[in-house]
Amino acid sequence: MTEKYDLHCHSTASDGVLSPTELVQRAHEQGVTALALTDHDTTAGYEEAQTTASKANIKLIAGIELSASWQDKSFHIVGLGIDPHYPPLLEAIRNLQVIRLERAGKIAAKLENKRIPGALESVTKAAGDSMITRTHFADFLVSQNHVSSQQEAFDRYLAKDKPAYVATVWAELDLALRWITQSGGVAVLAHPLRYKLSANWMKRLLTAFKQAGGQGIEVVTGRCSADEIKLAATLANDFELAGSVGSDFHSPANQWVELGRLAPLPTHIKPVWELFGQAVNIV
Questions:
Q1: Mean pLDDT score of the chain, rounded to an integer?
Q2: What does the alpha-carbon distance between residue 63 and residue 7 come to, in Å, rounded to a whole number?
Q3: Is 278's pLDDT higher than 60?
C-alpha cells in the first residue's frame, strides 16, 4: 500500500480549529496514512493525537513548527520525528509561550489605539491553554465585524507594516534547529516561497539552514501551483535537501486547503520520510 503523507497541520493546541482527536479523524477520512501534527511552538496536542492515531491505524509523526529568527527576519521550521518530551525543547516551548504572550499584549495595545478594544481578553479566552497566534487576533477582528475574513484581518491590521503588526525576536535559527535535531528530529524549512526572498537571500538562508543541521524543505504545500512546486524542487536539488509535503491545514472552513490534498512529490526529489528510518517518535 502506498503511504499518503501530510507532514504539516495544526490543531487547537495552537491556531487550528479542530482538536487533535478531530484532526486525526479527519485525516483518516481523507485517506492520510502518515500524519505529522506540527502546532506552532508546542507539542501539547501530541498525546491526544497519538491515542486517536493508534485507533485509526494512522502513522503519527511527532512534530512541531518552531518560530525562528535569522538576519532580522522570521521563519518557520518544522521538526519531524522529534522527542516531544526532550527537556531542552520543553524549556524552549515555555520561553516561546512567554514571547507569544508579550507579543499578544503589544498587538492588543495597537488595536486599542485603533479604537478596537477587548482584543487581549478575547484571544486569551479563545486560546485557553494553547499558544496565542495572530490567527486568534484575526478571528477576533472577524467576530467584531471589523473585517470580513482572516485574510482581510492580516491585510489591514496584522501583516508586516500594518497598524497592529509587532516585530518579534524568536529563537535564533541555529538554536531552533538544535532543539529539533538533538531531540532526534528532522528540521524542515516550512513553505519557503511564502517569505518572498530574493534569490540571493534564499541562497544565504538555505546555506545557513544547512550549516545549522537543516535537512529538508517543503516542496509541496497547500494551495501551491505547479510552478511553485517546480521552484521549491529546484531549491531542494540545489541545496541537497530532502523534500517534504504538508497541507498546513488549519480549518475545514478553508475549502482550498484540505488534509492530504496534495500534489505528489516530484520523483527526482528525495522524500523527507526516508530520513525517518532511525526516528523513534513515530507510532
A1: 93
A2: 8
A3: no
Look at the alpha carbons of 168, 250, 216, 83 in this order and tell me if their dihedral is positive or negative: positive
Q: Which of 242, 190, 181 is nearest to 213 (CA)?
A: 181
User: Could you tell me if 126 and 140 are in contact, meaning their C-beta atoms sit under 8 angstroms apart?
Assistant: yes
Q: Which of 96, 124, 120, 125 is nearest to 107 (CA)?
A: 120
What are the pLDDT digits (tens) for 128-177? 877 888 999 999 999 999 999 999 999 999 998 999 999 888 999 999 99
At residue 283, the pLDDT reads 54
pLDDT digit string, tens, across residues 110-141: 999 999 999 999 999 988 877 888 999 999 99
- Contact 216/235 with Cβ under 8 angstroms? no
The pLDDT assigned to 1 comes to 61
